[in-house]
Amino acid sequence: MLDAPMQVDPSSIASGVNNVWVLTVTFLIFFMHAGFAMLEAGQVRSKNVANQLTKNMLTWSVGVLVYFLVGAGISSVVGGAADPFAYVSGGSDSWIGWLFGAVFAMTAATIVSGAVAGRAKLRAYVSYTVLLAAVIYPVVVGFTWAGGFLNDIGPGFQDFAGGVIVHGMGGIAGLTAAWILGPRMDRYDDDGSVNVIPGHSITFAVLGTLILCFGWYGFNVGTAASVFVVENGTLALGAFADTVGRVALTTTLGMAAGAIGASAVSLVKTKKVDTLYVANGMLAGLVGITSNTNGITWVGALVVGLLAGGQLPVVFEFVEKKLKIDDVCAVFPVHGSAGLLGALAFPFFAIPGYEVSFVAQLVGVSVIALWTVAGTGLVFGVLKLLGQARVSAEHEREGLDIAEHGVDTYPEFGGPDVDAGAVRTDGSGVVRADGAGDPPNAGKIKMVTAVVRPDRLSNVKTALAQVGAPSLTVTNVSGRGSQPAKTGQWRGEEYTVDLHQKVKVECVVADVPADEVVEAIREAADTGEPGDGKIFVVPVEDACQVRTGVRGPEAV
Questions:
Q1: Minimum mean pLDDT among 189-193, 400-404, 498-502, 533-537: which range?
Q2: Coil, strand, or helix at residue 536?
Q3: pTM score, two decimals?
Q4: How would residue 230 be classed by pLDDT, with cut points 50, 70 and 90?
Q5: How far apart are CA 283 and CA 267, in angstroms?
Q6: Exposure string (b/e) for 39-77, b if CB count within 10 Å is 16 or more?
Q7: According to DSSP H, which parts of 182-238 are helical?
Q8: Which of 79, 84, 367, 486 is at a distance of 20 to 30 A from 98, taking alpha carbons?
Q9: What is the Cα–Cα distance from 22 to 15, expressed in whole angstroms?
Q10: Do 519 and 463 touch, CB atoms closer than 8 A?
């Protein structure tokens, strides 16, 4: 006798597969925080890197708790839900839905940190994150995705994956916060001319960009959340049937076109293809396509991507030079204006039969922009009045890594420490800090000071150890001499590099001949190119060992 076929509930399969899909793309979107961290860290100065990384971690940690306890419920209240906090005790499906919404909320929050980098107090930024996660962003969601009034204007305001609701809102918030805080010190001269302040690592910025591009597939493609639906008791494809393929295609085309658009405008403006503009252009193209990716033609995706990337250098220059707003990571041209452009262009490139109205889009972006400016302006305005918005001038010059966190992101100089086996010893295996042999230098103390290339420091340390002078002091310095000045470029703007990065090595010797030290440094630091540095020898009148009080050559 044959066994009866096993009966499977189609709704269980649909629910399970859909939940796995949503969780997978949710984790992908969460990984975008790594991209934001690297992108922003690369665009700030080295003295502010740890501060930027800390803000990104706290954005998630603080913001997601607030969004769970308050924010998600507020969005439901604004949207008119009967039981706005049902997700708290609603079970597995409700919790997964909440988490999917939370990663979008935290993306909007973290965008702001890049605009106010280098001068915002950590407590001010965290306070704003709390209010953004609790009220500002949830109200925007309430107006739109949660069923609010913007859905009632014609066919409703259309924003598939958050081109305006998430990115446009974050970019506008960042611009508003940066305007209220004011520019970084030395960003503008008294006559209003702009000083370029390059970030410390193009490498980090590009790595962050590519991580964000990877995560964006979760952002856009993941919004097509229903793999399966149940129709007449059988499984059928949901959004995967006619939406997910278009979303994947237009997302990819928009990203690529954004990079090309920014590259082209950069080439026209500066005669060079600026690396940072290419990176930012990829993101601007993605932002531009995010609101319309489910209902736009592939031609429209290319056009929107090109326009979103092309507007980037123009809008950034306008913000920087006309508005005099110091948007450190270009969050407004990348997320703000690109997001608005994509939403407003949607009606002109929609696929046949897709209902979208320019009036509804215009009203939607206007309402979201006004609410965001008002909410952000109020929070940062109050913080500024209380003297809690911006760090002191002393802390800003010192760097927020030390002032706000007590850490040095790059504490080490040069390469690894010298192998003890290469160091001269006294015969018992103990390192001789004062060298060996007959007293040279006529029994006097001399200081040998060398200014050399940073990449030669490890060689210099080894060479000094080999001549019996392992004790040294190293300082990061910058200066100019015979090495010619160069022209640098940061986000399309040229600046003169006439102070070159060097390290200063100071070595005080008594029992080691100063001439041997000089020759050791010279051979180790020599590359044969201008800019290898200089070595100076000066007499030292006296020396005193702090621990013992011993003075003279014996103290060295």
A1: 498-502
A2: strand
A3: 0.81
A4: confident
A5: 18
A6: bbbbbbbbbbbbbbbbbbebbbebbbebbbebbbbbbbe
A7: 202-220
A8: 367
A9: 10
A10: no
